[in-house]
Amino acid sequence: MAIPIAMMAAGAFLTATSNYMANRAQAETEIDNAIFYERQAAFARQAKSREALLSRRKFSATLGAQIGAFAKGGVSVTEGSSVGVLANTLAKQSEELDAIIKKGDLDSDLALGRAAQARSRAQTLSSTSFNVMQGVSSLLSAGGR
Fold first, then answer.
1. Of 18, 32, 129, 139, which is most buried by a Cβ count within 10 Å?
2. What is the 3-state secondary structure (H, E, C) of the chain?
3. What is the pLDDT along the chain (145 residues), one digit of tens a residue?
């Protein structure tokens, strides 16, 4: 009778130990994931700035071309339909910049949220209490057989 109990205890100990090792490995992976997501968030912020800059340059060139065309044709840019054309171009620029900023912020926030989740999972998997509870569960499970 003592041999089966000893074997069950040894099996439970091995299960608890392997769970602990697996949890540590998974925690390290989660930390790596968090670092990746944080880098992804930084890239999203940089991409947002770059896209906004390119958009401003594009609309600046468009406005310059429109003003130049009006001036070349002898049309005043301070009154009439030419003002409407320029205002429309400025409104489109504002809408595009707003969309670029919102998308960049959303991408960055999403990546930072994922990083926070990964760090939280790593903390849980590394915690003594989590591993002790899992080990106790293995021992109790083996004892119930």
1. 139
2. CHHHHHHHHHHHHHHHHHHHHHHHHHHHHHHHHHHHHHHHHHHHHHHHHHHHHHHHHHHHHHHHHHHHHHHHCCCCCCCCHHHHHHHHHHHHHHHHHHHHHHHHHHHHHHHHHHHHHHHHHHHHHHCHHHHHHHHHHHHHHHHCC
3. 577 777 777 777 788 888 888 989 999 999 999 999 999 999 999 999 999 999 999 999 999 999 899 888 888 877 888 888 899 999 999 999 999 999 999 999 999 999 999 999 999 999 988 888 887 777 677 655 5
Task: Give CA–CA dist 55/123, Å, rounded.
Answer: 42
In the block, residue with structure tokens 């769970």: 19
